[in-house]
Amino acid sequence: MARPLRIEFPGGLYHVTARGNGRLAIFADDTDRERFLLVLTSVVSRYHVLCHAYCLMDNHYHMLLETPEANLSRAMRQLNGVYSQAFNRRHQRPGHVLEGRFHARVVDKDAYLHAVCRYIVLNPVRAELVTHPGQWCWSSYRATAGEAPVPAFLTVDWVLSLGDTYCSWKRDWRGRSHRSRLCPQPWWWAMPEACLTCGTNSGAPPRWGRFHGRNASRYACRWRHFLRE
Q: What is the four-CA torsion angle of 115, 16, 138, 50, rounded to 10 degrees?
């Protein structure tokens, strides 16, 4: 039976996942994770893919990828193939590392983008590996929140710009309890007023394109509170 074709188009945004063969670990230790990120850096540069978020677990990974050139399959074939070969060489084992094809779900930028960003970086918390996403160093959370340098393969400007929706939410929800369960929650929930100026108190994070200085601190702080449980 023929495999279904991938839906690929310029500017496509995808939630990409891949799992270990037989649900076995694809990262034996931090060295494997570092190797994967090195390969990802090469793929991002070669295929001009944008990586907006990622999370490396033990037996699978999640990424939010954008493909300006509609080349998701080629980029993922390079990423998974090169990493699998390196993994097998290092651990002196044969066979498949990953289970079947990678999974890619097209993300609606208007309806589901916020939920996908949140889901990816909160994976370690849901798996009860940590109690806060900032404690897991193998995701994009810390770089996006300004708690770590932004790696070369990661693009954070767009995710940080999602904080603009907070201003309209604040006008619409003024006077309401952000913890109310009787009405839909905005994605930037529980945003205290003090957070808007915390950059001047805690110091500015690394420069992120047009989001730098005090503005970078404001957006990064909104990102942290967006992920609070």
A: -90
At 113-170, the pLDDT tens digits run 888 988 999 999 999 999 999 999 999 999 999 999 999 999 998 888 876 544 443 3
What are the helix (H) ranges across 96-208?
113-121, 123-126, 141-144, 157-161, 165-172, 198-202
Strands, E assignment, 68-175: 103-106
What is the DSSP-derived secondary structure letter of residue 152?
T
CATH label of the domain that carries residue 74: 3.30.70.1290
Q: Are residues 100 and 47 in the same domain?
A: yes
Contact predicate 12/55, CB 8 Å: no
Q: How far apart, in Å, do the first and last CA atoms of the chain sit? A: 44
**Domain hosting residue 168, numbered range:** 158-226
141-151 pLDDT, tens digit each:
999 999 999 99
